[in-house]
Amino acid sequence: MIRCAAAALLLLASCRYDTSGETASCSITFSGDVTGTYDCRPAYLSWNPSVNNAATFTFSLPATSTRPEMAVSVGFHRQPAVGQYVSTDSDAEAYILVTTADGSTYGMQQGPPNNLGPGSGYWNLVLDTCVGPIRRYTGYAFDASGTLDFTLENGAVNAHVTF
After folding, report:
1. Staple partner for 26: which of 40, 63, 83, 84, CB 3.0–4.6 Å?
2. Structural domain boundaries in the chain
3. CB burial readout 87-111, b (16+ within 10 A) else e
4. Can you tell me the distance from the alpha carbon of 140 to that of 74, in angstroms, rounded to the nearest whole number?
5. Are 61 and 73 in contact (CB under 8 A)?
6. 111-148 pLDDT, tens per residue?
């Protein structure tokens, strides 16, 4: 019984949630076919050197009556650091999908599994600060700030994210 209690306490302590690695703020402003400014927290910058050295900046939000559904993940294959990362980099990957209340979808996928390339979209991630790595249960997180700009469907949707 003592061993079970000790194991449960260890499990609870190791699974404790904290906000390190989440951005302190995240705001996305759309223009074009999708408009509005929305809170996009929580957003994360993570890195997993044991999985193809993959780093991603990501957030995902369900639709509400006043907000489109958003799934945004842009990445590269190196440890994150202060600097600029763009969709034309040789190690760039992205999955961006925006779905409006009327069911219209706008998106791009660059990299596996389909390796479509940036196609009709473009993204530009700038990390102004990047503190870490902070050990997480899988890989590492970073406390970061910066901007992400992306264009979808040949300019039909434009977005500016500040975090």
Report:
1. 40
2. 21-162
3. beeeebbbbbbbbbeeeeebbbbbb
4. 16
5. no
6. 876 655 555 789 999 999 999 999 988 899 999 999 99
CA dist 146 and 34 (Å) reads 22
Please report which residue ranges of the chain form alpha helices under DSSP H.
2-14
How high is the pLDDT of residue 75?
A: 96
Q: Are strands 105-110 and 93-99 parallel, antiparallel or unpaired?
A: antiparallel
Residue where the block lists tokens 């076919």: 33
Bridge pairing between strands 140-152 and 54-61: unpaired
pLDDT at residue 115 in the model: 58
Residues in the chain: 163
Position 11 pLDDT exceeds 90: no
| Closest to 144 in 3D by CA, of 27, 54, 26, 53 | 26
Chain Cα centroid distance, residue 72:
5
- Which tokens sit at 34? 């999708």
pLDDT at res. 113: 62
Q: Is the pLDDT of residue 153 over 70?
A: yes
